[in-house]
Amino acid sequence: MRRLIRHNGDPMADPIVTVAELLLPAFAAVGGEGADPVVRPSDRADAQANGALAIAKRLGQNPRQVAEAVLAVAKPMLDTICSNVEIAGPGFLNLTFADHFLAEQLGLAAADEHLGVRLAPVTKRVVIDYSAPNVAKEMHVGHLRTTVIGDALVRLMTYVGHTVIRENHIGDWGTPFGMLIEHLVDLGETEAADGLSLGDLDGFYREARAKFDADPVMQDRARHRVVLLQSGDPETMRLWHLLVEQSTKHFNAVYAKLGVLLTDDDIAGESMYNALLPEVIERLQTAGLLVESDGADVVFPPGFTNREGDPLPLIAQKRGGGFNYSTSDLACVIDRVERVHGDLLLYVVGAPQAQHFAMVFKVAEMAGWLHPPTEAVHVMFGSVLGPNRKMLKSRSGEPLKFIELIDEAVVRAAASVAEKNPHLSADEQAEIAIVIGIGAVKYADLSTDRIKDYIFDWDRMLAFDGNTAPYLQYAHARICSIFRRAEIDRASVRNDAVVLGEPQERALAKRLLAFDSAVWDTIDKYSPHRLCTYLFDLAQDFTAFYEHCPVLKAADDATKQSRLVLCDTTARVLAQGLDLLGIVAPERM
Ligand code: ARG
What we know:
The chain has 589 residues and is an alpha/beta fold. The chain contains 21 helices and 13 strands. The chain has a four-stranded antiparallel β-sheet. Strands 6-5-10-11 form a four-stranded parallel β-sheet, with helices on both faces.
């Protein structure tokens, strides 16, 4: 059998991608260089190529004749991988893959550590800005999406071979720190540190704010302290560090519980850009972009207006000389491009900051700091809502604390594990409850289109049926148990031959081979829900296969071995797919 080698030297990909690449020369021959075959999976056949329509339109020809001309060129090649090729409708090419071709491709994917997923043709340095909680404030449900989506993007980009630089742009600078430091001084350092280390950051913040609001003396002290902080006074910096350290300890505890990759080394808070701020102003000035408006130094990027239709300024330096969030994000662009040498800058931040980032990126382009091929993208997302469609609150009416949310997920999962797996040891049950509970929260978030809001629903996310993490984790564990009970080493089947006979085998094989496209589609759109949908479809295809096709009791040895390859590859794709989403797939549950 012929081994297909893709033109970039990679041995395989989703057959849909492979056939599109193989059709390129034929489409180019009839439609000119770069004519796109437009191949999609199809229910009628396996794949449909629609490219003839666009070519015919452009050349003023009959689309069916264009399709025929393509076919005349491509037929010899298509005959090696297709069992049937026909022209349908206004000029579609309907392609049915030969069973031997799918079987061979699946064999290659099964023998591949990377499960047939293509590596990036060009390796980029991808900077991913995510999580970004604020110092002296607890992480709450508002940080869930950025943390979970950002971490999935880190894993996906790394998987296809990019170099990923994680950056946690924590809010660790600005005027509130004057009041926070003075409150720390009042409490006494050790006392304050002890209190903060218990994780009650919000309590500390509230006390400081109450004192500040009520007491003019405190306001003066806070203002003076901000000046000291801005000028780098050593004693003030030491106190500031104490606050930052206690807060990052709390963030790290959350990350550890959640299995998020961020560490202290990834912290690149607002304070880091402080020294660069005067330079931002200088460079904007030199570029001739700064305009004075109401005593502030601003830039007017074209295309931004307020409700009245007046041009909207990006304030670079406030009246009185202070800098703000925008100034620090401008510095941040310079840093990520010029020091970190990022090619692709992703900002995983909520949709309410859309205008902020659009303006910052525009000004950075105008100033010449950001230019192609370097690209900055605001990967925005909607909100997590409570059952009343309002911001999710805790019983006390505050935004639900992140740590409480995680703990509750595990407690709830433990109840269902105890019910479903009473035979497992208490330790095992506890371990599984953690991966199910945390997996459920992450998956519920990732499986919704990130642009949309979603309603946080414990029962739905923890259900063992439907598009949920427990359903996928369970599908994986069930396959593991087939091998365990039959005492077959999973790795031992990975080079066995695949034969496809039953339609359910064929459907499962095609789905497994589409893992490549699912990963790339997810990456191209920065949209983890696409991978979730794929994994859910895969689990369903597996169920259909398993119901119709006996594995251990297959009619003959060759069929049994082939079906074991399908089982093992399904489990690997499920586990790998979940891992890319930051979710653990246990072998038993
Ligand atoms: N700390 C900010 C907030 O809570 C998010 C920071 C996002 N990153 C950035 N480069 N601005 O809103």
